[in-house]
Design goal:
Blueprint: H1 19-22, H2 24-28, E1 34-35, H3 47-59, H4 69-83, E2 92-95, H5 98-109, E3 115-118, H6 125-132, E4 136-139, E5 143-145, E6 148-150, H7 153-160, E7 165-171, H8 183-195, E8 199-203, H9 224-228, E9 230-234, H10 237-240, E10 248-251, H11 255-267, H12 275-287, H13 289-313, E11 318-319, E12 327-331, H14 339-349, E13 352-353, E14 355-356, E15 367-371, H15 376-395
Parallel strand pairs: 1-13, 3-4, 3-7, 7-8, 8-9
Antiparallel strand pairs: 2-10, 5-6, 9-10, 11-12, 12-15, 14-15
Bound molecules: pyridoxal-5'-phosphate (PLP).
Length: about 400
């Protein structure tokens, strides 16, 4: 019989070394905040993951590691089953995290003076990974029109034609725009990137989090030529809420690119996966599909709740349609506040810790990002706090 998971349970995460819950007031300099920010879930992992961890813990020896055969097979099967993407086990390289990998990749595959292209508003560590290594960031901002985001291909082609642009970090699905890029869109990126010999690093950490009617297309699955000039970053961390176990999979089919990446891992002594991460991810990939489907349904319910709530009670605010990720992007520009005043309204008046849009690049000013991977009652509380704050603003 199929197990029914409940995602309504409020699980106390205070004093569990959770950055989302234990550091929120300190990081946002405000007390009593409802944490709806950093991208982890307030849901417990599938039971099969906990069982697998318990079993491994009982073994009692945790020495140095390699990626196990069974782990690699589980990743390979998941990519085939979930994304129709046939990969070879030797393509799967380790990283403790995708952001770590992005830093290693920018460092290892570009030289001082090279430029790296990103598409803001976008996950802030992309720009940091570029600047941390002393490289220059080039932006190809997304176009926001009629309530949805698309890519500006003419601008992309122009930017790629600068010979100093050697790399693009693609966010697919896109955080925070909520887009699951279509095959057509990805093909256009690939055509332009191949023409100008730009290496595409496709961050696909949200690829398992897509809603019904949408399909994630792995960038390197477009063709062999595309795979040859790309690196795909994936992870079970967002999908199964195991970011604290620090495991991700960097998939590189081109042997020469792989060699460079593996060299980077060794240089910084990052080659060995941690045991709980590998065990949890293997169990999740093997047995977590049903949990994930139910979880996605629940998150979709949260997204619909927010959209309807805003429509009915706060018509000045709209949430961009969510095709993938569990991160809602709310357009607050009709409130007419600059980004500092909007931040003040959200943090000091509403007392909700949303991510502020301006941190995703100037293109995100006037927006906030809400994490929807939590029990519905928290989403309801966040909306009610927001409504009161906006109404008090309007009453002034
Ligand atoms: C696009 C994107 N990449 C990477 C990460 C974080 O990856 P990791 O925790 O594996 O470094 C996030 C987390 O929100 C993300 O949204």
């Amino acid at each position: 019989m199929q197990k029914i998971y409940s995602f309504d349970e409020l699980i106390d995460r205070v004093k569990t070394a959770s950055v989302k819950w234990d550091q929120v007031d300190q990081l946002f300099h405000t007390e009593g905040l409802l944490p709806m920010w950093v991208a982890d879930m307030d849901f417990r992992v599938p039971d099969e993951v906990t069982e697998a961890l318990k079993k491994r813990i009982e073994h009692g020896i945790y020495g140095y590691t390699v990626q196990s055969e069974s782990y690699l097979a589980a990743v390979q099967d998941w990519m085939m089953k979930r994304h129709d993407w046939k990969i070879r086990q030797e393509w799967i390289c380790h990283s403790p995290g995708v952001v770590t990998a992005l830093n290693l990749i920018v460092d290892g595959f570009t030289k001082p003076g090279d430029k790296v292209l990103i598409q803001p508003p976008v996950y802030p560590p992309f720009a940091k990974a570029v600047r941390n290594q002393g490289r220059e960031c080039v932006t190809n901002p997304l176009i926001y029109h009629n309530g949805t985001y698309t890519m500006d291909f003419a601008d992309l082609e122009r930017k790629f034609s600068d010979p100093a642009v050697k790399m693009m970090i693609l966010c697919s699905p896109h955080n925070p725009a909520g887009r699951v890029w279509s095959k057509d869109e990805l093909l256009k990126v690939a055509e332009s990137a191949l023409k100008h010999d730009v290496l595409v690093v496709s961050d696909e950490i949200h690829s398992d989090l897509v809603f019904e009617g949408r399909k994630h297309i792995p960038y390197a699955g477009l063709s062999e030529d595309v795979a040859d000039r790309s690196i795909v970053c994936t992870a079970p961390s967002k999908t199964f809420n195991i970011a604290g176990l620090q495991i991700s999979n960097i998939i590189i089919s081109n042997p020469s690119l792989r060699k460079t990446y593996l060299h980077q891992l060794r240089r910084f002594s990052l080659s060995e996966p941690n045991i709980p991460g590998m065990v949890a991810a293997e169990a999740a990939y093997q047995k977590g599909g049903e949990w994930l489907d139910q979880c996605l349904n629940y998150i979709k319910g949260n997204a619909d709740y927010v959209s309807h709530f805003l429509n009915a009670h706060l018509p000045e605010l709209t949430m961009v349609p969510l095709e993938g990720t569990y991160l809602g992007w709310i357009d607050c520009r009709k409130l007419g506040l600059n980004h500092l005043k909007l931040q003040d309204l959200i943090l000091k008046k509403a007392r909700v810790a949303f991510n502020q849009g301006y941190t995703f690049g100037s293109e995100g000013e006037g927006f906030v990002r809400i994490n929807l991977a939590c029990p519905r009652s928290l989403v309801e509380q966040a909306m009610s706090r927001l409504e009161k704050a906006v109404n008090s603003l309007k009453a002034q």
